[in-house]
Structures are given as C-alpha cells and as structure tokens.
Amino acid sequence: MKRRIRGIPAELWVDACTAIVVVTFYSVAWPTLHVTHVVTPPVQPFLAALAAFPILLVRVNPALGWAVSAGSALLIAAAVPHQPGSDLPFQVVQLICLIVLLFAVGLRAPLPLVGVAWLATSLLVGATMPGPGAELGWPLGFGALVLFALLIRWLVLSRRQLSAFEEENELERARRAVLEEKARIARDLHDVVAHHMSLVVVQAQTAPYRVDGVSEGARAEFESIGATAREALNEIRGMLGVLRSDGQLPEHAPQPSAADLPALLDATRRAGVPLTWTVRGELSGVPETVGLALYRIVQESLSNASRHAAGADVQVDVVCGTELAVWIGNGPGTPGPTGNGGHGVAGMHARAVAVGGELVAGARPGGGYDVRARLPLAAGVTVAPQPATLGKR
Description:
It catalyses: ATP + protein L-histidine = ADP + protein N-phospho-L-histidine. The protein has 393 residues and is of the alpha+beta class. The chain has helices at 2-6, 10-36, 44-52, 62-79, 92-108, 111-128, 134-210, 216-243, 261-270, 288-308, 343-354; strands at 275-280, 314-320, 323-330, 358-363, 369-376, 389-391. The protein has three domains: 2-130, no CATH class; 179-243; 258-391, Histidine kinase-like ATPase, C-terminal domain (Heat Shock Protein 90, 2-Layer Sandwich), CATH 3.30.565. Helix 3 runs antiparallel to helix 4 (62-79), helix 4 (62-79) packs parallel to helix 6 and helix 5 (92-108) packs antiparallel against helix 6.
C-alpha cells in the first residue's frame, strides 16, 4: 500500500488537493453569496463558480486562471448590486482565489505578464475595496507577494541550473576518465609492441652477420624487413605522441607482466587488505600483452575492493591453462567514497577486449562484488597446469 502511494506522481497529488480546495471554496461561496450581494437563487451557483473554479487552472495555466478570476471579480463588482451594509465588491473566496492565482503567475508566467498581473490586480482591488489607504496598501501587499514568488522562482531555477551543470561535469569527468584509461592502455600496448618490433629490427640487421652463406637477395630482404619494422615503429611512436599531447613524459620503467602478479598480491596483503589468492598454472609463459592485461585487471579490482569495501575479505583465483581465467571477489565491507562512476570497470573491460578476451563485473545479491575475466593465450601456447600456490591471509 505504501509503495502504491509513493508511486503516485506529484502532479496528481497537486491536482487532488486543488480539487478539494475548489470544492470547499465553492461550497462556501454559493450559500453565502446572498449575504454580500443582491442575487436571485438561480444565479447564485453561476457567480459562485466564477469565484471558485478559476483556481482549477493554478497548475495547468495560472495566467488564464488569473485572467478569468480578475475578469469575473470586475464583473461582479460593477454589475451585481451589494446588500445594504455590505461594502465588499466581491466575495472573500474570490479575493483568496485571486491572490493564489497571482502568486502562481509570479512563479511560472513570463516576467512582463507578471508585471501586468500585479498592476491589474492592484488597480482592481485597490479601487474597489473600502477603507482608508486601500489604494496604496493593496498594491504594496500584492507587490510583496509577487516579489516573494519571484524569489522562489529564481531559487528553483538556480538549483536546476546547478543540477544540470553538475550533471554535465559528471558526464565530462566520465568521458575524460574513459579517455585517460584508453590512453594508458595504448601506452602499455606501445611499450610491449615496441619492444618486440625493436627486436625484429635488430634481428633483421644482424642476420647477415650471424648466419653464414647469406645471399645478396636474402641480405636485401633482411634490410627491407628492418626498414619496414623501423617505419612501423616510428608510426606507433607518432601515434603515442598524440596520446601524450597533455605533456606527459614517456614511461621508461618496464611494464608489469603476469609473472609479477604474486608480488602484487603479496604487497596488497602486506598493506592490510585481508586477501587470499590461488594461482594454478605457470604464469611465466603468458604473452606480454595478455600478462599486462591480467596484471592491470587484478590491480584495479584490488584497488576498487579496498576503496569501496574496506575491511572486506578479498579472494583472487587465477587459472592458467589453454586460456587465462581470473576471478576477483570481495564480500560486503565499509562503503568508501563514491563518485568515480565505475570507470575502472570500463577500463578493465577495455583491457580484456584489447587482447581478445571478455570481462564481466557486478554486485553480489547478498553484498560484495565479483569480477570475472577470460583472456585467450597466443595461438599454440598451452601452459601445463602446475600445483596451486596459495597465498595465506
């Protein structure tokens, strides 16, 4: 029942409350109209409707509702005679409706129309209401009402603009984070590919001196291979220069590989993370690109677990056979700071796809988080399973 009530739109609640107010005003205006004005009984319900019904437009079209209310007030004040001893030009119900609609106009209508509504209402009420100072008091009161409505209007508008600006900033941060992660992946791949292509260049240039009996045709072929490899290497470095246009310096440190994974896990455990891991298979034979992807995926997963689930138990399971299968899971812990929008997961997925693999990440039903990835090894590379190495907590 509570869920159904919460699911009702706010506009429907406003319309329901407005309908209740209109029914109440109408039930008061109809039987009391003869107290202030000389009217026949058949005319009473129509004049009471003119007094109460315009407020129905307070949400849909407040300017039209105000115009109908002000016009009917002027009509009643000018054409319907008053009862002896009553100086009210129209009913109090109609004055209340007129004030409510003027406030709604100040909230939603264009500023020129707000000024017209304030001026017309001030002239109407100030000229028809009895009492000393009515010509000045009513305009001042209506002016304060309109000013208050405009202040609320500008406050709401500024909050909306601030919310839209924050949303745009969040989208920009998300886009920038994804681009930065892609650039980092490109740099990592460059370092690995450039290393192997440099070896190709060296082997092609030294082959005539290392191999006996190389003919002139073979020597020319080796030179062509070396030139092509150097050209490709230069193009890769040029592309990387575009990615480093933000002023970043090249990274000269060697990139981590799959063989460095146990050291990463051990360092994470020494840092205080309650970590348990299992590695099945020999990681030293994993290709560099796949090993780098494995290392970065585990590194990012451990970082996310320690950041967003502090104190939670973390398990890592790596199986190296005909392919690499990795699972990183953590239980529920103390929630950490939020706001990165899950871009680390996007980066891990991009790394897995870059080497032809796949990655799935998601929250556990009972709390916690799981990351599972499958990374193919190079064609023909099969590492025989070895006894599992277990990292103790």
